[in-house]
Automatic annotation (TrEMBL):
One of its GO terms (molecular function) is G protein-coupled receptor activity. The lineage of its organism: Eukaryota, Fungi, Fungi incertae sedis, Zoopagomycota, Entomophthoromycotina. Coiled coil: none annotated. One of its GO terms (cellular component) is plasma membrane. Its main location: membrane. This is G-protein coupled receptors family 2 profile 2 domain-containing protein. It is a multi-pass membrane protein. InterPro entries: GPCR_2-like_7TM.
Length: 335
C-alpha cells in the first residue's frame, strides 16, 4: 500500500520528534527564566549546551521507540499518517507515554512557571515602588522615575515577551489532545475540533517566528547592527572620501562620487597609439610604432564600488531624518 510506506512512517516520526523538541526547548527557556528571576540563582555548571542537548536527545529517544516498534503508519480512522489503529486503547497508551504525556507535562509546567514569574514580578514592582516612595516622598514617581524603576520595567518587559514562547504550545497542542481524547472515547472524529488542531499545529512555527521577531534581544541586536552599518558606511565613508553632508549634493552619478575614491583604487594601464603621420615639433615625422606610451588610468575596485553602494543604501534607507542622524551620531560618532 503506497500510503503505508516508509515515507508515511518517517513523516509521523518527524512530527513527533520536532513537536517534542519544540516543547522541550520552550521548557528550557521557562526553567532558565525561573532560575534567574524567581529563584535569583543560576547554576553556572548548567549552560545553554546542556539545555540544547536535553531538548534534542530526549525527544529523539521518545520518538524512536514507537518507530522501532512499527507503530507508526497509515490510519484508517483519519485517513492520514499517524499511529496505526488510532482510537484503540492499546494504541492510545503508546501515544500517551511517547507523545501526549510529555506535551501535557511541558504545557502544565510552563503555565505554572509563567504564573509564578508574573506573580514574582508584580510583587517586586510593588516593593520597589514602596521603597522609593518611602525614600523620596516629595517627588512623584510617575513624573520622575528613578533609574532602578526604569531597569525593573525593562526587565519585566523582557520577561513578559519571553514568556510567550511556552504559551504557544499551550495554545496549539490543546486541541490536538482534545481531538485524541474524543477519538479514543467516542471512536469518531469531530471535524471542527480536528480542523482546529491541524491549524494550531501548522501555526506553531509562524507564531514562534512572530514572537522571535519581537524578542527584546533580537530588537537590540538589530539596532546594534543598524548603528554599525551607519557608522561604517555613512560616517566613516564620508570622512575618508571627504563627501558633502547628507543634505547637500544629493543628486549625482555613481561615477562622480567614485571619482573621490583614491585609497581603494587600482591602476590600469592602457596604451595610447598615435595616428600614423603625426608630425612633432621641428617637422620631424614620428613613427606610430615608436611613439607608444603608457598612460595610467585609475579605475575603482570592487571594494570601492561595494562601499559606495552601501553608502547610498544606508543614506537612503537608514538615515532618513536629521533627528535620527543626530541620535545615532551621539551614540556612534567618535569622540
Amino acid at each position: 500500500m503506497a500510503s503505508d510506506s516508509f515515507i508515511c512512517s518517517l513523516s509521523v516520526w518527524g512530527l513527533i520528534y520536532f513537536t517534542l523538541a519544540s516543547v522541550f526547548l520552550r521548557l528550557a527557556v521557562v526553567v532558565n527564566i525561573q532560575l534567574a528571576v524567581v529563584k535569583s540563582t543560576k547554576n553556572a555548571s548548567i549552560t545553554e549546551l546542556h539545555y540544547l542537548l536535553v531538548a534534542t536527545i530526549l525527544p529523539l529517544l521518545l520518538s524512536i521507540v514507537p518507530a522501532c516498534a512499527n507503530l507508526l503508519g497509515w490510519t484508517t480512522h483519519e485517513g492520514t499518517c499517524w499511529f496505526r489503529d488510532d482510537g484503540k486503547s492499546r494504541n492510545f497508551i503508546w501515544q500517551w507515554f511517547s507523545y501526549y504525556m510529555w506535551v501535557i507535562l511541558g504545557v502544565l509546567y510552563s503555565i505554572v512557571s509563567i504564573l509564578l514569574i508574573v506573580r514574582y514580578l508584580r510583587k517586586q514592582k510593588s516593593e520597589i515602588q514602596e521603597d522609593m516612595e518611602a525614600a523620596v516622598p516629595r517627588i512623584p514617581l510617575e513624573c520622575n522615575p528613578l533609574p532602578h524603576s526604569q531597569s525593573a520595567d525593562i526587565i519585566k518587559q523582557t520577561v513578559y515577551r519571553t514568556c510567550w514562547y511556552p504559551i504557544i504550545p499551550t495554545i496549539s497542542q490543546s486541541f490536538v489532545m482534545v481531538n485524541a481524547l474524543i477519538l479514543t472515547a467516542k471512536k469518531e472524529i469531530l471535524f471542527p475540533v480536528y480542523l482546529i488542531s491541524i491549524i494550531g499545529t501548522a501555526l506553531q512555527g509562524t507564531l514562534t517566528a512572530i514572537v522571535f521577531a519581537n524578542d527584546p534581544v533580537v530588537e537590540e541586536s538589530c539596532g546594534h547592527f543598524r548603528r554599525h552599518l551607519i557608522k561604517k558606511y555613512y560616517y566613516d565613508y564620508e570622512q575618508v572620501q571627504h563627501l558633502p553632508p547628507k543634505d547637500q549634493n544629493r543628486k549625482g552619478s555613481i561615477a562622480s562620487l567614485l571619482s573621490n575614491v583614491s585609497s581603494h583604487e587600482t591602476t590600469a594601464v592602457i596604451t595610447s597609439i598615435r595616428s600614423p603621420g603625426f608630425t612633432a615639433e621641428g617637422g620631424t615625422k614620428i613613427n606610430s610604432m615608436a611613439t607608444n606610451e603608457s598612460i595610467p588610468i585609475t579605475q575603482p575596485s570592487f571594494t570601492s564600488w561595494f562601499s559606495h553602494l552601501m553608502y547610498r543604501f544606508v543614506r537612503r534607507f537608514l538615515v532618513r531624518e536629521m533627528s535620527t542622524v543626530n541620535e545615532i551620531d551621539a551614540n556612534v560618532s567618535p569622540r
